[in-house]
Amino acid sequence: MDITSIRSVLHYLTKNILPTKFETAQQPEPNTIQLCFRGVDSQTWLEVSWNGDSPRILKINKPEKIGRESTLSKQIRYGLKYMALISIDQDDFERVIKFSFAKKPGDEINKYLIFELMGKHSNIFYLDNKHKIIAVGKQIKSSQSSFRTISTGSIYSGPPVNLKKQPREDESFQSWKDSISIVPESLKYCLINTYQGVSPILTKQLEFVSATVNSGIMGKNIDFISNSDLKEIFKNWKIWINRFKNNNFNFSIFNKDFYCVWFFDKEINFENKKDLCTSLENYYDYHLKQKKLELLEKKIEGIIFKQSNTEKKNLNIQSDLLTKSENYEKYKEKADNIFASHEIKKQDIIKGQKLYKKSKKLKRSRELIKERLSIYKTNIERLDEFTTLLENLNSLNHEKLSMRIKLLEEIMEEICNEFNINIKKQREDQKSTYEIESSPIQVDTPTGLKLQVGRNMRQNDLISFKFSKKGDLWFHAQESPGSHVVLKSSSQVASEQDLQIAADLAALFSKAKRNIKVPINLVRIKDLQKIKNGGPGCVSFKNGEIIWGNPTRGEDYIKKNLKTVI
Prior knowledge:
By secondary structure, the protein is of the alpha+beta class.
């Protein structure tokens, strides 16, 4: 979040929430705090993050109750109880924000919350009236920083003084040009390294709004940029300073993925009806969830890859042991030959007995080795199923990002539980009232029958056993990992068209979905059984029949009939 965006949020807060009573705090993620303030007729929730990748301050809608039991949130909640937020301070282009609290407006300041939103050096401080640190987002040891150590009980000292030049609206073009021309770099880095408050996103915004002949001007060396192009950049530079100083802000999206808070609609031919704080919240909510989604996918892929290698390694070890165990008869023959000899010495008897013992041991071990081989093969197949579920999830984008994240979290939890994998889990409140579970895909056939598709092992179990009735039909790709598909034919007799659509969807949600035709097992629910001691979604069946599914036809059907949730 660039300094202009921070300034725009603080301007809104200063106008709308001063003074207000502090109500509560919670910490949904390790580097994020959510604060609630109550005014005369409304609540205002803020989210402040000191995550190095995305430090930010946002006004947000009322969030889920997650993270109320963290130490930091408890300290803030009890320390600021019944206190009033009386001022919000931030100096010009500094990225340090100070919230001051008193028992009531007009009283002496009693407590402070300070947010330093400076990339990887971001942090949060909870201070008493003497600026002693009561709590801190992350403590910094002397071995981590030569400038300042940060720990509870010490006196707060600010970050290093920013020695860059402060942008001024009254600065002349020549002075501005001389300042950025000291080091012959690209225009982007000349601005960033010379002036306070300049971030890569601001240089992108200036380039976008300026009508320069030179495309990609920010990446050009300053010595090769014409005066006319520099003057165009300078003109918009002064507009930015003016709007920053006068708190004249407006939210706009440009280049699809980027936003700006100081463009005007008419300047970029863009109409925006939403207010700035709501737009900022929506923007960060979408992009942070998208990022979380990508990280979860990579994490699950990594877990599956690592576990698959472990299972394959164990499988190879057992295969080698099985090969060696096939020699048990040779050891028995050698022992027989020893005892068949006319002249047997004591050491021959000892040797023969050892050979018999080794032969028996190898013979006994064969069955155990075969059992282990079966287990490792099943584990590899199971991991293949999880990979297919992950691919199926990515093939559809019909629902909210929060639900897709939940699905990924469920798949990861299922893998970890099944293979006893320990991963660091964020501590959640036991009394979370907003806990949700993902739901199977459900579509209607042309005749009005319901079709359900499981997207993880828990859902496969639910639709196959808990949600199903005696007359329903179960579909699954033959000898291929994939989702369970259940046709709710207990309500009425399924037509040939219904059966075909169910088979097409079973083909689409399987590993074989890139084939033209896929053999599908069609089984009555009454002939379906859970495998004892098998994981969720492990089934066996009898009296099945084969029909052929077409994945392409299944994809066309589900795109037309599945409602998209934005």
